[in-house]
Each structure stands twice: as structure tokens, then as C-alpha cells.
Design a protein that fits this description.
Helix content of chain B: 55-70%
Largest sheet of chain A: 4 strands, antiparallel
Radius of gyration of chain A: 37 Å
Number of helices of chain B: 6
Order of helices and strands of chain B: HHHHHH
Helix content of chain A: 25-40%
Strand content of chain B: under 5%
Strand content of chain A: 15-25%
Largest interface: A-B, 20 and 23 residues
Structural class of chain B: mainly alpha
Largest sheet of chain B: none
Strand order of the largest sheet of chain A: 1-2-4-3
Distance between the termini of chain B: 94 Å
Shape of chain A: rod-shaped
Number of helices of chain A: 5
Radius of gyration of chain B: 29 Å
Oligomer: heterodimer
Order of helices and strands of chain A: HHEHEHEEH
Shape of chain B: elongated
């Protein structure tokens, strides 16, 4: 680059650029590692033109679906009196978190822990141990179990 | 114990708005839950009969909820270009991918010329 670009040299540079194009000098990228890693590319977020499902479904596993009915067999009654636990037949697809939450919504009681098993007839039984400040017998009376 | 269950009528449900319908649904589910408890605790035969009614009431409420919801959505999407897939016409997969009546009616220039030059002629027999 001449410090003062005379009109003649400017014209000559313009002619060269027009003929040969401007990308003459190629520069090699400096690679500081021997490994080639995936380059970071543009990631666009979704902007759907329409919702695939018109309206999201109502919650399928609500508390009424999770807890089917309480049990009042002899062993269940024993558990109520001695261990402060209620026994429920529960939906097979319900997990312990859902059971705990459902019992809270339905009967307004906190569960200390939930143990589950699947009976031989295919139904799920849940032993719900209540916190010490609640009496399982009272709750059973309130539900209408006794 | 409880009042005997009455079959809820769908046309009465349609007058309610969405919040009321959801509340009604919740109440009906609670009814069903209490009936199930009574079944376990040795309910009378009439109580057990109510269980079937309660289930159908819940079904009716859900039907009304979903029907009115979809109807409103169809109105909303009427003028729009893209509509959700579950509101589109269902028919069959093949029929959805078939040529539209307009696409079927298209003719090549060659065919068009033939039709123009050699249209169907009408004859009459002189009596």
C-alpha cells in the first residue's frame, strides 16, 4: 500500500481486483490441538406454525385415578391400630410419590412413608404410614372405612 | 347416608362455563370415590348400583367439556391457514395424500389443444 494512493495505482489495484477477485490471500487457521472437535453451530429454537395437539389433555393421573379404594381387611385394620398406617388399593401405574401426593389431596394427611406391592391378582397395594401427629383410626373413621 | 345419585343431564351441563364444569367433574369424582369406599365397607345393593351411575355422570361431564372445547377451537381456527392436527379432517392416510380435485382436473397443453380442436360433436337425425 502506497502511503499516498496515486490515481494510477488505485486504478491498477481496482483492475486487478476485478480480474482476479479479492480472495487471493488464503490464511491457514491456527490449530492449537491435535483433535478435531464438533464446531459450535447455530441452534435455533422451535417456532411452530401451529400446535400439533389443539389442547393439552387434562391430567390423566389425578388423585382419583391413583387411589382406588382403601382396604379394611383384618390385617389392614391391624395396621391402622398398631402402626398408624392406612392401606389402599392403588392404580398399578402409580408410583410412591404420586400415592403420597394423592393421599394428601384426598384426605388432607401427610404420609411419612409409602410401601407398595403388587398383589397376585394384579392390583397394587400401598401401605401409607401417617405422621405421628395424625391418628390413622380417626382418618379411617372420617373416610367411612370402619 | 348420601342422597341418591341423580343422572346429570347433558343439556343442563352445556349451560355451565368451563370453571363450573371442572368443579362439577371434581365433585362427581369425589362421589365415585366415596361410593367405592362404601363398597369395601359393605354397602347396600342400592349404593353399589350408584357406582355405575356415577361413572356415567363423569363421562357425560367430560364429554361436554371436550365437545365445547373442540367446538370453540374450531371456530378460533376457522380463518387460519395452519390448524392443529387433531382438528384436521381425518378420513384415511391415503386419501389425505391423494390429489386434490383441482390437481386432478389439470390438463397438459397437448390435451387441451386436442379437446379444443376435436370437441364432442352433437348430431341430429333428420326425421
Amino acid at each position: 500500500m502506497a502511503p499516498k494512493a496515486s490515481p494510477k495505482s488505485k486504478a491498477a489495484a481496482a483492475k486487478k481486483a476485478a480480474l482476479k477477485g479479492v480472495h487471493g490471500k488464503s490464511v491457514r487457521k491456527v490449530r492449537t490441538s491435535t483433535h478435531f472437535h464438533l464446531p459450535k453451530t447455530l441452534r435455533l429454537s422451535r417456532k411452530p406454525k401451529y400446535a400439533r395437539k389443539s389442547v393439552p389433555h387434562l391430567p390423566r393421573m389425578d388423585q382419583y385415578r391413583v387411589v382406588r379404594n382403601p382396604l379394611n381387611s383384618e390385617t389392614a385394620m391391624k395396621k391402622i391400630e398398631e402402626h398408624n398406617t392406612l392401606t389402599f388399593i392403588v392404580d398399578v401405574k402409580a408410583n410412591k410419590h404420586q400415592i403420597k401426593d394423592a393421599v394428601k389431596r384426598l384426605y388432607d394427611v401427610e404420609a411419612l412413608k409409602v410401601n407398595t406391592l403388587i398383589r397376585p391378582d394384579g392390583k397394587k397395594k400401598a401401605y401409607v404410614r401417617l405422621t405421628a401427629d395424625v391418628d390413622a383410626l380417626d382418618v379411617a373413621n372420617k373416610i367411612g372405612l370402619i | 347416608m348420601n342422597v341418591l345419585l341423580a343422572a346429570v343431564k347433558a343439556y343442563e351441563l352445556r349451560n355451565k362455563n368451563k370453571a363450573e364444569l371442572l368443579k362439577t367433574l371434581d365433585e362427581q369424582k369425589q362421589e365415585l370415590a366415596s361410593l367405592r369406599v362404601q363398597k369395601v365397607a359393605g354397602g347396600s345393593a342400592s349404593k353399589l348400583h350408584q357406582i355405575g351411575l356415577a361413572r356415567k355422570n363423569i363421562a357425560r361431564t367430560l364429554t361436554v367439556i371436550n365437545q365445547t372445547q373442540r367446538e370453540q377451537l374450531r371456530l378460533f381456527y376457522q380463518k387460519k391457514k395452519y390448524i392443529p392436527l387433531d382438528l384436521r379432517v381425518k378420513k384415511t392416510r391415503a386419501m389425505r395424500r391423494a390429489l386434490t380435485p383441482f390437481e386432478r382436473s389439470l390438463k397438459t397443453q397437448k390435451e387441451q389443444k386436442k379437446l379444443n380442436h376435436f370437441p364432442l360433436r352433437k348430431y341430429a337425425v333428420k326425421a
